[in-house]
Amino acid sequence: MSKKAWGGRFDEEPNALAARFSASVDVDSRLAEEDIQGSIAHANMLASIGVLTGADVKKITEGLAQILDEVRAGTMTWDASREDVHMNIEARLTERIGDAGARLHTGRSRNDQVATDMRLWTRAACEKTARHVDELIAVLIVRAHQTRHHLMPGYTHMQRAQPIRLPHHLLAWCEMLERDRGRLDDAQKRMNESPLGSGALATTTFPLDRQETAKALGFARPLRNSLDAVSDRDFLVEALAALANCAVHLSRIGEELVLWSSQEFGFVQMSDAFTTGSSMMPQKKNPDMAELVRGKSARVIGDLVTMLVLLKGLPLAYNRDLQEDKRPVFDAFDTVDDSLQILSGALATANFNKERMRAALRDGFLEATDLADYLAARGVPFREAHHVAGRLVRLAVETGRTLPELSLVELKKEHAMFEGDVSKLFDPEVLVDLRDVEGGPAWSRVQEALTDSMKRLRSRGTEAEKAAAKFGVVLT
Ligand code: ARG
Fold it and tell me: Is the dihedral of CA 450, 453, 457, 458 positive or negative?
């Protein structure tokens, strides 16, 4: 910034390193649209209260509209010596329209200006991310429908535990994403208050109408306290926390895709479009996209931590530290948006291997719980039934057999209550459908869950429909 721009208080030119150190336009030029929106609302309000003339406001709004065109066309030149997005736009406006441009900043500070810009930007970003979440949910619902006959082991401790259906697993991912979406919605609702009119910290001597600007910008109301309005960024913490949660969920999904696409599992084959080869080993088809989704979540977690540490210990009101809020916010939204879209694409095109999943049900004695339940349902105390089933597993292990390979005589030797009908437990399809409890994997329950998920998605309206349509999903 030249000494002239700061006005009468300064004699010396700034130190070159200090100027570079404090310039932020390379990052915050991304707020240009919101900055212009905020300025238009402010200018109109200044006219409403008689501080600006109608002629000035006309020049200002037309000038800003032209700058917006330049920004969108990529022809706006950003000048680091003008420090940030706000000074760049104001200087450009004044270049264009003269005096009226210089009157725009009446009763406003960059402190309430930047706080307003960030709230506007983040509000829109939450909405966009929510749409990408909806896309992924839509893909999962469709894949769940398509794979309703895919049985697989469910795991605890990464050990095969009980048989489930693949759609039950996919719908678990949906539930995680539904909550992520809810958190984004909550954050968005709470951030929707206007800092504009708070000035540098203590409002201004001009009789600003903060209700008018709040309304014009689609905010629910003005923030109640001017010191708070310019100095807190808790709304960014909330958004980043929602994103970090989501990124962790995506990372866990990524991890499962990595595991499932290994030769050891072979549950899924990712399409060529979402895998890469090795520069050395010609046979390799690596699940890099899933790995990167897992890896990039680390940055999003870091972004949340950055924001928390940035705020910790700041006295009221505005401090320049707050300029550092933008990079983590932009990075977290970009990363999560990309990760969501990558997973949508990868899951829409993945090939789930029904036979490999089914084969994995054979080993691991997955019927053991059901043998215990069989006895318990016939009056044997569950602890005793559990013990009997354990002995049967041991017998099978020792004789190198599976549980279905044990004879009824052998079963009866462990407990007299076993009868011929126990053999029905050796059909995994039956085992899954026996788990007919709310939230469980029986087909009727999964069907219910699918219908519910679809309804929820549809209730979110046309945006969700558009999101689904992107992946060829029609929400009917
Ligand atoms: N670029 C600054 C930021 O992002 C704008 C506010 C600067 N205010 C100030 N008093 N220096 O926080």
Answer: positive
Residue type, 468: A
Instruction: Determine which one of 157, 279, 407, 459 is catalytic.
Output: 157
Interval between CA 114 and ligand 1 midpoint (Å): 7
How far apart (Å, rounded) are the C-alpha atoms in residues 36 and 387?
Answer: 72
Task: Name the pTM for this structure.
Answer: 0.94
CATH topology of domain 12-106: Fumarase C; Chain B, domain 1 (1.10.275)
Q: Alpha-carbon dihedral of residues 38, 44, 48, 53, nearest 10 degrees?
A: 130
Provide the CATH topology of domain 368-434: Ribonucleotide Reductase Protein R1; domain 1 (1.10.40)
**Integer Cα distance of 290 and 251 in angstroms:** 8
Round to whole Å and give the CA distance between 455 and 459: 6
On the question of pLDDT at 131 being above 90, the answer is yes
Domain locations along the chain: 12-106, 111-359, 368-434
Q: What is the pLDDT of residues 325-340, one digit of tens each?
A: 999 999 999 999 999 9
User: Does 1 score more than 60 pLDDT?
Assistant: no
For a substitution probing ligand 1, which of 26, 39, 109, 110 has the most ligand atoms within 8 Å of its CB?
A: 110
Span 111-359 CATH architecture: Up-down Bundle (1.20)
Alpha helices in 354-442 (DSSP H): 354-360, 368-377, 382-398, 408-414, 428-434
Query: Which atom of ligand 1 lies nearest, measured to the CA of 320?
Result: 12
Active site residue 149: no
Distance 443 CA to ligand 1 centre (A): 57
Q: What confidence tier does 276 reach under pLDDT thresholds 50, 70, 90?
A: confident
Q: Whose CA is nearest to atom 4 of ligand 1?
A: 323
Average pLDDT, the chain: 94
Please tell me which residue in 2, 278, 423, 444 is annotated as part of the active site: 278
Domain 111-359 identical in fold to domain 368-434: no
Question: Do the strands 159-165 and 151-156 form a parallel or antiparallel pair, or are they unpaired?
Answer: antiparallel
Question: What's the pLDDT band for 8 if we cut at 50, 70, 90?
Answer: confident
Q: How far is CA 202 from CA 8, 199, 463, in A?
A: 23, 6, 40
Of the listed ranges 1-15, 158-172, 254-268, the one predicted with least confidence: 1-15
The pLDDT score that the predictor gives to residue 475 is 67
